[in-house]
Each structure stands twice: as structure tokens, then as C-alpha cells.
């Protein structure tokens, strides 16, 4: 049933996989929306694993920031050449996946090119603008970024300071950064890589400010890559994580661009300076809404990464005793470990399902907008604001729990969880700071309550219709939908309570802004409950639609973990609805559900089918021994021309093009391929210069084979600090200090 079982695996992990009750490939098809996409992910992983050029040159923790950026750029260039033979270039999902597989999560110069640069051109550019720039961007003839956030302002778009003033005499926009706080700050790839950018700037015509609008701006010369006159641009420095990306700053000084460089599918500026407004006030936010629509699924997968590592490791880590005193027990058998990890597994599945549903809603919105119907824009903007905040926060919580569940080794970079956390937690801030997002949703909820108060309940959208409903009887024995009613009660009561507090403050004579601020904590609580209700509802509906009965059965078990845990988590909000006996029933049902899920724990995380390459758990070896063996067996002199000729006769290059300038770089790889030994470390190194017969291992705690301890030791020995027994720090400072201290 579990498709991850292979000979040579840790027997404890194999036992776990044999206890699974469902086909992991069938579950993967449910997770990723179709059997075709799940199958394509496996095929792409397999294809990539056979291409030495796409392997990491060495473990990321042992790289400098400059090396990480170089590594990401190298792989991007290789992928750009190989992509047509590996994926369907029309598939966004396949494009995203292969980059995750090959480059991982630490960022690279093209990380946002596909997700934030190309979409605004495609959705906000006119047909003429798309013809001019879209294909160039898709071919990666140009590299772009999205410059919105400024040094002094992020979530408050109305306060952005960058200006684009229309000069009617020349029919140009003049871009300026009038203050230090108006510098664009944080855009990925802006620092050193991008030569074009979508820039969000205040449109000014005849001294009237029309607010933020998108402009297509060239930043660097396409031949020399030098910044153009009037442009100040650079890298903002190292970050908590994601240091393979060159996030940057950008400033303008009287920088001119043609009128046609404003993206004008919706808003327009004519040659005489006339302004044509968009059909919907928030239609310019469509790019942000798209990113937020995808964030739930993306964050769910970040959580899935961490949980895959933690659950697999918990299945092979033994500590302490229960009944059998002859052998220590797996830490995955402790109830505390189940309670720490399993609700997060449920959330990961819920976030992914919710994410795909939100993406579907966004795709439908695009169709509606193209047909002139913008009525769904406000609803989706509010929904994605809440999802972005709740999902990113809970993902961060879950990843940190996964790290702690791994004990001391979770603190090591060998687990990779700290990097996953660092990348994922950035989602709490980018694309809108979480508190700001919750308050944006709160405005939508308050307006909904006011509609009910004004007798307009029938005009409510389907996502907020429950706010006008009466309380109903709860029978927890009837299943998940009864728990959904509990959540509706909590969200409804809190939304009414927060709205009435705001209204009372406002009616007392307090200004609207101050009243809002005084009620903001209660309002954010309402937004969280509303969002969590939507997540639970989507999870329930998705599980109900599954056809495969074995897959559906285990997901019902997982859903039971979710609804019981989530209701227990909001107990303070349902005190007027549920008795203490009912809360005890829910608590006991949660413990039963944790035990029910236990046999399927490893299979549930295996179903995410996150490869060792994505987890950075594969082995990359530097074998001088293989080099020696090659020369001994084949009596080949180490001469470049003769070696190349021999290799060309012996092996198939598939999609690897042998280039003269890279000859030494591939020399070691070709030896490894010809001898069928593990791939070589450091593609840039001449194997004849290797000083040690070492093996470099990537992060190992989440390995598919579960062989953690032996590889953790090898990983530690591969540290650059262990390449010499005595460090310069000792010879230069510590040894002289100790010598001087001798009596």
C-alpha cells in the first residue's frame, strides 16, 4: 500500500509503512488534485535525479550567501536549457514543482519571476503590452521582479511614496523616490539579478494623485546589466532565511519611462493626460489576491515538509520504556508526541485542500472579471486576507512543534527544519502583515453585520450567511458537521460582539479610526474564527467528495482529529454553548482519534511524496577513490582530450551538454556516472585537486530510508571545520592564550 518501501530501509520505518491501510499514490492524487499531477511530480523527481548538473554542489549550510546565490543561478540556467524536455511549459504547477525539487526553498534569483512578475503582465497588461513583454519574460530573455513594498511602508498601500508623474509634453512618466522611506525595499531578485520590474507607484496627473498603479520599468542595461541612469539599486543584506535570493532596494531620480509602460488593461492614461478609472476599485489588487490564494496550499506544503521529517524521525528514534522493558519505545508511541504532531498533519491537509479551493475561486474570478462581473472581488479579497494570516501563523506554530518533536537533533541544521521555519514564517509578513490582513477581513465582517442590522440578510454572500442564522441544537455524536456548527456559533458570537463594541465606541463620540483601534483586538479574534471556520468547512466538504473508500476512511479519521482539536482550542468562545460534559466528550474523542490515526502516521506524510532531494536528504559524494579506481581499471591517463573522448564513447549524455569551458567541472561527474557511484560533490572542483576522500551529506533526519544515525555522523564529519584537526582560531588565539597561562 505504501509506495515508499524499498530494500535496505530502516526496519522500524518499514514496519510503520506496512501498517498503513491505504495506497499512498492514491492519497497523493487527492492531495494534489489529480492522479495526473501526482504522477507527473513523481516522474519529474525521477528525471531530475538522473541529471548530475541539477544536484547541489555541496550542502547549503556549508555555503556562503554568495555561493547560495551562485548555486541558484547556475541551476536556473541549467533548468532553462533542460525544461522543454522535462516538463510541460504550459503547466504552472509543473514549473513550480521542478524548481522546488531542484533548487529547494532557500530562494534563487528567479524565485518570484514566475509568480509575481509575469502574472501582472498577463492580467493587467493590454494585448499590445503582453505582445511586447510577456513572451520575453516567459522565455527568461528578461528577468523581472515586483517592487511594491517600501522602506517606510508595506501593508498600507495608500501611504506608498514612490511617484510616477505624467509629463503631457513628452507623454512620459517621471519616476521619483522623494524620501529615504520611499525606497523600494524587499523585492526578491531586485538586488542583483532582475533587469526589469513591475513598480507600484502613485500616479500623478496635473498634480492630482490617483493612487498606486503598476508600471513596467527597465532597471538595468540588457547587455551590460549595469543600472540605468536615474536608478539606485542593490541588495538589502542577509535575512533570517531565504538567503539564496537577492532581495533588494530601489530608488528613482527623475527616471523617465514611456506612457505605454503603465499597465493599462483596467486603468488607463490617454496621451492628453485623461485618466480612465478601472471598473472595480480593488481590481488592481488582483496580483496580490492571486499570491494570497496560493499561499494556503504553499504554506500547507511547508508544514508537510517539517512534519515528514519529524514523523519519520519519530518512527526510528527510540527513547524510554512503556510495557516492554527489553527494548526502548519509539517516541512516536508517546501520546504527547501524537498530540504534538497529528493535529498539525490534519492542518497541513486542511490548508492544502483549502488552498486549492481558493485557487479555484480565484480562477473563476478572473473569468468573471473578463466578462465584466467584479462582484466577487471584495469577497475573495477578504477571504484571502484572513487565510493568509491564519494559515501562515499556524504553519509557523506547527513547524516549530515539529522541530521540538525531534529533540536535540531538531536544533541541528541536519534536520533542515530551522530553514523551513525561517522561510515559511516570512509569510506572516510578506504580501500583507498578518494583523493588517485580519483587520481587512474584519471590515468585511462588520459590513456584513451592518447589512443584517439593516434588514439586508438576503444580500449576504454565502461565506457570511451564517452570521444571520439562529443557534441550533448540537449533537456531537452526529459527526464533523456538528463540530462545524460549534465553530459557526463561536465565529458568529465573536463577530457580533466585536462589531457592537466598535459601534458603541463610535456612537459615544469617538472618531471612527480611534473606535476601530479600540476594538481591533476583538475584531482580529472574529477574523481568525471566521477563517478557521472556512478552513474546517472546506476540509469537511473535500473529504466528503472523495471516491476512494480507503483514502476517504483515513481522511475521515484525520478530519476527526482536526475538528476535535480545533474545537478544544477555541473552548473559551463556546462556553455558552457546550457543557463541561460535552467538552470532556470532545477531549476524550480527540485522544481516541490520535490513536486511530497512529498506524497511518508515516503513510500520511509519505503521501506528500516530498523527495529526499526536496528535503535535502540525498547523498552527494566526493570520491577521490572513484577517480583512482577509474584510472586503475581503465589505464587512462589524466589528459582532458583523451578522457573526454573515452567518456563520449562510454556513456550517454542524455540532456547534459558537454561544454569545453566546463570540462573540469564535469570530469568528476562523468567518472561517477560511468562507474555508477553516487554523484560527486562540488561541480566546480577538479577531482585531481581533492585532498580528502570525503563524503558530503545533506540534511538527514527526514531521509526516506530512515537510516538516520550513520548518515548524521557522516554529515557531521563532512563539516568544513573537520577538514583539519587544528583550526587557525586555535593556533592564532587559543593556543597562545593557553601557553601564556601555564605556570
Automatic annotation (TrEMBL):
Keyword Chaperone: no
Cofactor: FAD
Pfam families: ACOX, ACOX_C_alpha1, Acyl-CoA_ox_N
GO MF annotation: an example: fatty acid binding
Keywords: ATP-binding, FAD, Fatty acid metabolism, Flavoprotein, Lipid metabolism, Nucleotide-binding, Oxidoreductase, Peroxisome
Residues that bind FAD: 149, 188
GO BP term (any one): fatty acid beta-oxidation using acyl-CoA oxidase
GO cellular component: peroxisome
Compartments reported by the entry: Peroxisome
Catalytic residues of the enzyme: 431
InterPro entries according to UniProt: ACOX_C_alpha1, Acyl-CoA_ox_N, Acyl-CoA_Oxase/DH_mid-dom_sf, Acyl-CoA_oxidase, Acyl-CoA_oxidase_C, AcylCo_DH-like_C, AcylCoA_DH/ox_N_sf, AcylCoA_DH/oxidase_NM_dom_sf
Domain Acyl-CoA oxidase C-alpha1: 285-446
Gene3D superfamilies, A to Z: Acyl-CoA dehydrogenase/oxidase, N-terminal domain, Butyryl-CoA Dehydrogenase, subunit A, domain 2, Butyryl-CoA Dehydrogenase, subunit A, domain 3
Family recorded in the similarity comment: Belongs to the acyl-CoA oxidase family.
Protein name per UniProt: Acyl-coenzyme A oxidase
Organism per entry: Caenorhabditis briggsae
Lineage: Eukaryota, Metazoa, Ecdysozoa, Nematoda, Chromadorea
